[in-house]
Amino acid sequence: MVVDGGLSRTQHFDPATGLTRMVTGRVTRDAATQRAGRAGRTAPGVAYRLWSERTQPLLGAARPAEILEADLAPLTLELAQWGAPDPGALAWLDAPRRHASKLPVPCCVVLTPWMSRAGPRRKVRGCSTFLPIRASRIC
Hints:
alpha+beta, Rossmann fold, 6 helices
């Protein structure tokens, strides 16, 4: 048996503060369908939704792609490490928001020469290898 309250917790990155926080909001239709599928996963079961059938079509179809809401500073630094300093030049399935992808670029321009002095790429795994703080806080 599954009891679905109709709420979900998702991560939301705030570019103004440079922090990611958890936000509680309405479940999407695809998530509600997936939750209902848990009821019959191992044995016959039933799912109870704590909202009306009329509300179901009013729910959002699906959550936006994570890249549209995530902190892109670590990704931008890793791309710079691998020789792609401009994330906008890459072909994305879901392109990041224009302002979000531009935030960490000055950070990468400053840090890329420093990262190249750190040695071969096999020793340079990611931003956390070098920085004691989050990259989004120094950009």
